[in-house]
Amino acid sequence: MARPHELSTTTVRIQLPDDFLKSLKASKEKSHAGTSIPTSDTENPVYRELLNNIYDAVIITDPKGKIHDFNHRSLDFFLYSSEELFSKNIKNIINGLNDTTLGTLLVNNSNKLHTFIEATCLRAETPAVPAEDTVNKLTLNITIYLIFCIRNISRGKEAEFELKEAHNELAYERDLLHTLLS
User: Within a 10 A sphere around the Cβ of 165, how many other Cβ atoms?
Assistant: First the structure.
């Protein structure tokens, strides 16, 4: 049994009835134009449902970083149009990411190691924002992709900065009081 905070590699597969998938497909919109992942995969209603219901911005790339697909939240987060985002490489929007890092991410995921990155993301015509990125591997047919789930942590970083400032101010006041009483 896995303990809290321990990685578990156990997977349970659930086969959904075909009529559920057909009804789900009828109720969902088609994938956005421009995706370069094979149509049979991106029109799969479960794939599209999952991608568009993830809270984080999700970008799917090939191992070299070329963007092949993303969810709608990515457009809101990065402030690019679909066409602009498809023309980008993940290395151009996650500051510090390079070919070596992409290779390491691929190896980590091949070895069932999950990777968490704290980085700065570059957005269209706005200041860069701090973000937490988790990276996973997706294999569709025989093609390997990297999935970047990206979350804006600006508010958390601002709160952390304010907390450090308050702590430093209290330490200064304590030292001042200690000096006055000595």
Answer: 10
